[in-house]
Fold each of these.
Amino acid sequence: MLAAGRRVQRMLHDSGAGRWGWPTEVGGLGGNTLFRAVMYDRLEAAGIAVPVQYEMLETLAPAVMKFAPEVAAELIPSALTGEHAWAQGFSEPEAGSDLAGLRCRARRDGEVYVVSGQKVWTSQGIGASRIGTLVRTGTMDSRHRGISMLMIDLDSPGVEVRPIRYANGENELAEVFFDNVRVPAERLVGAQDQGWGVAMFLLQYERGNYAWVRQAHIGRLVAGLAAECDETDNLQAHEVGTAWLAQQSLRIKCGRTVQRLCAGAQLGPEISVDKVLLGTAEQRVCDAAMNARPHEFALSADDQNRQWRADWFYTRASTLYGGSAEIQRSIIADRVLGLPKEG
C-alpha cells in the first residue's frame, strides 16, 4: 500500500498538485490548506485512492511546523515526495486512550535523547521511515506535564518494528521497540516536557484534516455501492442510503472543522463530534457492503471483495483508536452539551 502510494505522491509532487497548500518553507508552493482538501476530493472522485501517507502528514505535519519549524523544513520535503513515510507513535500497552500514563522513556544525555520503551498499534509502522513519538521526559507522577515529542528515524540502532497481523492476514499496524535509541536533541518538537500541548494541538488536525481525507475515500466507496445497487432490492437501497447519510454527516461537520482550522481557529471539545461521525461512517459503509451482498463479500476471491474485507476488518477499530467512541461521547455530553452528571 505504501509503495503504490509513494508512486502517486511522487507524481503529484512533480506536477505541483501535491505541493499546493503546503508552505514554501517545507517544500510546498504556498496557499492555504483548502488546496489540499480539494485535491483529496478530486483524487477520490476520479477513482484514485489518496495515498495513505497523506493521512499521517495531515495529522503530524501541522504540529511539527508550528512547534519545530527547523525540523519541519528538514523532514517534510522528503515526506511530500513519498520518499520518507511517517508513522505516529502514541499508544502503548498500558497507555491507549490515557496518553498521560505513557511509559516510553527519553533521558537527555548531552546533545541526544536516549529512548527506551515500546509503542503499539502503530499505524503505518510497517514501511515508515520516521515516527512522531510521545515520550516521558519527566517522572511518572508528572503525568501530562512530563511528556515530550520526538521525531525518530526508524532505521536508528536499537529500533525494532514488529508487524501486528490482523485476523485477515494483513499487516497494517506494528509494535515499535526502543532499546537505548539515541535521538538528536534537535529532533524535539516543542519544548521538553511540553509534549502534551503539542499532542492537543495535533488532535485538532486528526479530527479535521485527517478525517477529511477519510471522508473523501468513504464517499468513493459509497458511490461504488450506489452504482452497483439494484433499485428493486429494498435491502440494498436501505443499506446504501444509510451509508450515504453517514458519509454526508461526516463531510458536512468535518468540512466546517477544516475551514475553521484554515482560518486559524483553536478548536475545543466540539471536535469529538467529528471523531464519532468518522468512526460511524467508516463502519457503516463497510457494513453496507457486507449486508447488501453477503455471499460475495464473504466468499469471493476477486480483488474488489478482498479489499472490502480488508477495509471491514480495519474499520472495526475506528471507534477505538485515537480515543474510543465512548470517551468521545462522554466529552460531548460533559463539555459540549453540559448534560448533568450521573447520580
Amino acid sequence: MNKIVVTGSLHYDIMLDAHHRPEKGETVMGSACRYKFGGKGGNQAIAAALAGSNVIFAGAVGNDEQGTFLLKMLQGAGVNTDAVAVIASVPSGMSVAITDAEGDYGAVVVSNANLHIPQTVFDRDAFWQDVSLLILQNEVAEALNVHAAQQAKKRGITVCINAAPARLLSPQLQENIDVLIVNAIEARDMCAVVVSDLASAKQAAEVLSATYSQVVVTAGEHGVAWCVQAEESQSMAAKKITLVSTHGAGDCFTGVLCSALANGKPLGDAVVSANEAAAAHVSKVAVELSPV
C-alpha cells in the first residue's frame, strides 16, 4: 500500500527571464522565454513519481492543446491520469513567471479548469485501493481539498497538505490533515511566528504541531525545520549550492518528502531526502520544452 494520490493544479507555464521583476507601471526587457509543465499539484505528482512512487493524479484540464501537453507530461513521468477530467467549457490553467538575476521569481496564475475538478472521483472505494497517502495544496478550491481529505481519512489514509499559496485553512480541513508543509511566509501567516532563521523555523514548527501531528517548515537559504507532535523540533541547515532558480523547489521538496513517507520512512529521514532533492533542483537549469 504505497500508492500516492495527488489532487491539485495543472498549469501551462510561460517562464520569462529578466534582470529584475517589474514595478507598478514598469516595462522590463527580458532575456529569455521558456514553456514548461507546471502547477503545484502537477509538479508534486511528477516529483513523487520520479522519486519512485506509484502516483495517481486527480485534476482537470481544458479540451485544448495546453491540456494535451499537460497530460502527456504527467504520463511521460509515469503518473496515472485516469482521474484527470477534460473539460470543454474552460481552458487549461496557466501561469506566467518571471525569474530575476538573483534566481528568485514571481508569478501570476489563472486557474481556469483547476476550479472545475470533479469531487465525485474521491467517493469511489476503487479509486483509493492500495493508496497510503494523499497530497493537497492551496491552488484549488478548499471545498475540493476538504472532500478529498475526508474521503481519505475515512479509509485510514495519511493526508499531507503543502499549504501554498498561504490562506486560512478551515477547521473542517485542519482536522483531516496529518502532515503540514509550509515555507517561511506560510508559516508566519498560519501561526504569527516570523521565520527568519532556523531557530524561528523550529519555533514555528512547534507552534503548528499543536494542531498538526507532523509539521515541516522550509526556511529557504537557512534550511528546514520539522516537528512531530509532542516531540522536540529539529532542524537542518541548507546545503551549500550555486543557485540557478528557486522556481519549483517547494514542489520538488514536497513530492520527494511524501514519496519517502509513503514508503515508510520517518519524518526526519523523509526531510533529509527531500532537502537533498530540492538542493539539486535549485542548482540546475530547468529543462526547456517546446511550446505546444
Amino acid sequence: MKALQFSKTGDLAALQVVDVPTPTPTADQVLVQVKAAGLNPSDVKNVLGRFPYTTLPRIPGRDFAGVVVEGPKELLGQAVWGTGKDLGFNRDGSHAEYLTLPASGVAHQPEALSFVQAASMGVPYTTAWDALQRSGVVAGTRLLVIGANGTVGSATLGLANVLGAQVLAAVRRPEQARVLREQGYEVILLTQPEALASEVNAVFAGGADVIFDTTGHWLPAAVPALAVFGRLAIIAAPLDGHVQLPALALYRKGGSLIGVNSLLYSSTECARMLNQFGQYFDEGLLPAPRDLEQAPLVQGLVSYAEVNAGASTKVVLIP
C-alpha cells in the first residue's frame, strides 16, 4: 500500500511517499480501508520532532474515516471513523491506504457525514467535547469561546449549542465576527486584553461560567472575565510554555484551570466520545463541516507544508 512515512524528525522533507506492506490485523483488531484522513497541526509537529515519544519509522496521522475490511463479523463492511493518541506516534497512523487498530477503537460513522467530513473532525471535535464535559458545560451555562473561528472553536460552538449553553464567541477579525453572527452567534471582537472582562460582563453579568481559550494567548485576560467558581479551559500555550497567570484573582473567585489535551486519550476512549456526539449529526442537531480542502495522499508533503505555514482551511488527505 502507499503511505506517508518519516524515518527521522526535524524537517518536513523527511516525509516521503512509500510503498509498504498492507498491515495484518491481530485477533482483537480491525483492518480499515482509509477513505479519507484528516491532517492536523499535531501531525505536522510530529514530523518536526515535537513529540519525543514517537517511535520511528512511522506513518503519521490521527484522524480517519473508512470501511472495515477485516475484523469482527459485526463490523465488516461498516463505515467507521476514529482518532486517538496512539495513532501516528507509537503505532502507524491514518496517512496511508490501510490502517489497523483495536476493534474497540472505531466508531460507527454518522450517516449524515461523508467520509471527507468525518475524517476532518476527530481531533477538533473530541478536543471540544472533552473541554465541555470536563468544565461542566450543561444547559444554561454561560460559555465564552476564545478563538471561535478555528476548527476546535467552531466544534465547541456547535456542541455547546446542542447542550443548551448560552454561547458567546470571541474572534480577532470583523469578517470572522460577521460569519459567526450570520450563523446566529453573539460575538465580541478581541482587541486589548484589558478590555475583555468588561466586554464579557456586558453580555454575561458577573462573568462567564466557563471560558475556553483555544488560542493559548488570552489566559491572563480571561481570569477577570470569569464568574465566581468559574472554569477556565485551555488547549495551547505560548511557544516557551510559560504564561503570567493572575493566580490571586483566580483564587479569590474560586476559579479552576483545566488543561485539555486530546493526546491523553486512546483510540478506544476517543471512539466512545465519537459515539456520544456522533448521533447529533444524524439527528440534525449539528451541522456537517464545510469548506474542506481535499488533497491526494501522494501530495501529502505539500499539504503538510501548507498546515505548517498556518493555512486556515482544514485539509483532508485522500488515499
Amino acid sequence: MTGDRTVAAIDCGTNSIRLLIASAGPDGHLVEQARDLELVRLGQGVDTTGAFHPDALERTFTACRTFARAITEHHCDDVRFVATSAARDVSNRDEFFAGVRKALGVDAEVIAGSEEAGLSFAGAMSGIEVSEEPVLVIDCGGGSTELVLGRETKIDSQVSLNIGSVRLRERFLHDDPPTAEQIDEARTYVREMLTECPVDMATAHTVVGVAGTVTSLSAINQGLTEYDRAKVHRSVLTADQVAGLADTLLASTVDEVEQMGPLRRRRAEVLCGGALIIDEVCHRTTAGELVVSETDILDGMALAMLAQGR
C-alpha cells in the first residue's frame, strides 16, 4: 500500500449510508481523513413493497451529494460505493443506480452477502487485537446480519441472514413499544434463522460486534450523552448486559429510547430489533462477552482498495 493515495469508501445499507476517506500509513494501517454517517432509511418499506420509496431515495441522494463534496475536498484518487441488503432484490434498482451515478459520478455495486461478510471481518480485525481465536464477527445491519467465523485473515465459515433491525421492526415489532406476542414472534423467527445457519457460533473464543446496533448498545451501557468513538471502540458488553439492554429497549417507546443515549431518531426507531438479534446470537456463544469495534466494512473496503491499487 502506498501512503500518497487517498480513497473513499461508501457503504449504503438499509438504515444508514456511511463514508470513510482514508490513506495508508507507513505501517500499512489506515489513516482516517474523514468519516460521516447519515441515517437515510433506504430500506423503508422494502420488506413489504419490494421497491425503494421515493422519499428514501431522495434522502439517500441528498447524502450522496454531501459525500461528493467531501470527496472533492480531500482529492480522493478512487471511490467505491457498495450497496448491501436493501438493494439486492428491489424492483426499482435502476432508479437508485442512476441517482448515485448523478450525485457521485461512480456506479453503485450491489455486493453479495458473502463479500459483505468478508469485508466486515477484515475491517473488524484491523482494529481489534485478539488473543483468543477463532473469532466470531457479528455485523447486524438494517436488512441483514452477517456472521463470520475465522482466524486473522482466514475465514472458516460465514453467512448473511435476512434479519436486520429495520426488517425485524417492520415485520414483527409493530407497536410502540412492541407487545409480548410480537417479541415472541420476532425471537422465534430469529432463532429459526440462527439454528439453520452454517456458522458454529459456540466455537468462537472471541466475539466482536460491529455497526450501529452494537455501537449504540455500548454508548447506552456507558451512559454517554455525546457519542465518543474512542470510548465505544474496544469497549466490552457482557452477555447479561446485552440481554438486559435488549429487554429494556423492547419494553420502551421510541421516544424513551431516544433519551437513553446519543441516538438519532431513525436509529432509536429500530434499535430494539437489532438488540434482539444481537442478544439471540450472544445466547449461542460461549465467550460470555461482546467486544465492540468501530472498524467495520468501511475499513475493510478502504484497506482492499489501497492494497489493490484501485
